[in-house]
Every structure is written in structure tokens, then in C-alpha cells.
């Protein structure tokens, strides 16, 4: 097979959770540009459909569906709806995230609500979609982690800005690393690959003081932009990475290596 053909997703069906966010938009766009019939799913159906319409106007095969990741039945219903419309799922990108906590002082209830979506919910997505893939010859699951699941918080980045650091985010992104390895081990014999990418911060017109500090922490001297995840997503979703599973890949401009 020609190496460029190995990166193609033509004939494949992909599901992306949280497809209308900063990372989700480029993930869904990349999968569709590579040829996949792509479904974006989240609770905010209005925002999601607006984004899906933009993709379709550009000639991409993208459909918006509803899912409440914190509700196990909703996850099962999403899988059933995708199978009804497309007959299979080859690729799952676990990208959705709930951010109820703002800092250390928030309530334990907020922490628990976060875990319902970001831990239990991601597990449900991985198990139901992974089991479908396992029963149908294989597939690829890509979890979207974070540098915050790899290293501890650097409070010096936020001095004087009034921003908090949410402990739930660090907890569930760290746990996602191990869920990735567990699922890769469990599903590997059925040709289902499970990997995780750990992106750095996304440029979103942050305070100049923060930008200067953050950029100095990276080798490349900048934050991520609206195309920096596209290549690694297509690579891990496609046959180009057919012998890669259980891996964690930093996409952070060197932040965690410095």
C-alpha cells in the first residue's frame, strides 16, 4: 500500500465527542478531510449543528448528534444511532470534557459531577464503542488528554491574573492515561488500538502576561493553533499507525519535555 493511502480514512466512520470546542472543531474537520463519515456528539446540540453546517458547506460529511456522556443510556443510544445511520464505527475520539471546578476551593459535589462525565462517562464511551469495534474486526480509539495529566500545575504562569487551577481536571486527565493503557491491553487482541494524545494550551487571546510566560515554557515558543492536532489525529485514526497502541503522544510544543 502506498504510504499516503495509509493515512486515508475513506470508507471509515468516525465519532468525535465534544466536536464544537476549540480542539473538537479541528479534530472533526481533520477526520472528515481525510475521508471519514464523521459524527460529532455533545449535549449542546445547537452549537454542534451550527458547526456541522459549516463543515457540510465546505463539502465535508459531518453530522451532529446528541449525547450526554454522563448518562450511560445516552452513550448506548448514541452508538445505536450511529450504527443505524452508518452501520459501523471504526474510529472514536474521546474529546468531550466537563469543567465544573474553577479552583481548589470548589465543592466536592462539583468534583463528583466532573468525574461522572470525565471519568465514568469516558469509560462508558470506550467500553461500548470499543466492544463494538472488537466484535467487528477492529478500530482505533484516541483519547484527548492534556499536559495537565502528565505534570503538576505551574502556578507561576497565573500569578496576578486571578485564575484558579481546577484539581478535577488534573485528576481525570491523569486517570485517562491509565484507562488508555488498560483498554489497549483489553481490546488489543481484537485489533482495537487505543492511544492518547496530550495537547498543550490552545491560543485563545489570553492575557499577554500569561502568553509570554507560557510561550517561554515551550521549545517552539507558542501555544497550539487550530491545525496542530489534525495530523496526529489522522495518523492515530488511520492505518498509518496500525502497530501503535497504548501510546501517549505529547502535542505540546515541547512543554512537558522542557
**CATH structural class:** Alpha Beta
The amount of helix comes to: 40-55%
Major sheet characteristics = 7 strands, parallel
Task: Determine the CATH topology.
Answer: Rossmann fold
- Give the strand order, joined by hyphens, for the main sheet: 3-2-1-4-5-6-7
Strand content: 5-15%
Number of domains: 1
CATH architecture: 3-Layer(aba) Sandwich
Shape: globular
The number of E-state strands comes to: 7
Distance between the termini: 38 Å
Mean pLDDT: 96
Unreliable sequence segments:
none
Series of secondary-structure elements, N-terminal to C-terminal: HEHEHEHEHEHEHHE
Which key terms come to mind for this protein?
258 residues, alpha/beta, Rossmann fold, 7 strands, 15% strand
What does this structure look like?
With 258 residues, the chain is of the alpha/beta class. It has one domain: 3-Layer(aba) Sandwich (Rossmann fold), CATH 3.40.50.720. It is built from eight helices and seven strands, in the order H-E-H-E-H-E-H-E-H-E-H-E-H-H-E. It has helices at 3-6, 22-33, 45-57, 72-86, 108-135, 167-187, 208-216, 230-237; strands spanning 13-17, 37-42, 62-66, 91-94, 139-144, 192-199, 248-251. A seven-stranded parallel β-sheet has the order 3-2-1-4-5-6-7, sandwiched between helices. Strand 4, helix 5 and strand 5 (139-144) form a beta-alpha-beta unit. The longest helix is centred in the middle third of the chain and has 28 residues, at 108-135. The chain is globular, with a radius of gyration of 18 Å. The mean pLDDT is 96.
Amino acid at each position: 500500500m502506498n504510504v499516503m493511502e495509509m493515512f486515508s480514512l475513506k470508507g471509515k466512520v468516525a465519532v468525535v465527542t465534544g466536536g464544537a470546542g476549540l480542539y473538537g472543531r479541528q479534530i472533526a474537520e481533520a477526520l472528515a478531510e481525510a475521508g471519514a463519515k464523521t459524527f460529532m456528539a455533545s449535549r449542546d446540540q445547537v452549537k454542534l449543528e451550527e458547526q456541522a453546517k459549516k463543515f457540510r458547506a465546505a463539502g465535508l460529511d459531518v453530522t451532529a448528534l446528541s449525547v450526554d456522556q454522563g448518562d450511560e443510556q445516552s452513550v448506548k443510544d448514541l452508538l445505536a444511532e450511529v450504527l443505524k445511520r452508518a452501520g459501523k464505527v471504526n474510529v472514536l475520539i474521546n474529546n468531550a470534557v466537563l469543567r465544573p471546578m474553577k479552583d481548589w476551593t470548589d465543592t466536592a459535589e462539583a468534583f463528583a459531577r466532573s468525574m461522572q462525565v470525565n471519568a465514568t462517562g469516558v469509560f462508558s464511551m470506550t467500553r461500548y464503542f470499543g466492544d463494538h469495534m472488537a466484535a467487528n474486526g477492529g478500530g482505533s480509539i484516541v483519547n484527548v488528554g492534556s499536559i495537565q495529566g502528565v505534570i503538576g500545575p505551574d502556578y507561576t504562569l497565573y500569578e496576578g491574573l486571578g485564575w484558579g487551577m481546577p484539581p478535577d481536571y488534573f485528576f481525570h486527565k491523569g486517570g485517562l492515561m491509565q484507562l488508555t493503557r488498560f483498554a489497549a491491553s483489553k481490546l488489543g487482541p481484537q485489533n482495537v488500538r487505543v492511544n492518547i494524545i496530550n495537547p498543550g494550551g490552545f491560543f485563545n487571546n489570553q492575557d499577554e502576561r500569561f502568553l509570554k510566560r507560557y510561550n517561554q515554557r515551550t521549545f517552539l515558543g507558542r501555544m497550539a493553533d487550530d491545525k496542530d492536532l489534525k495530523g496526529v489525529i489522522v495518523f492515530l485514526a488511520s492505518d498509518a499507525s496500525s502497530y501503535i497502541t497504548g501510546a501517549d503522544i505529547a502535542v505540546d510544543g515541547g512543554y512537558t519535555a522542557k
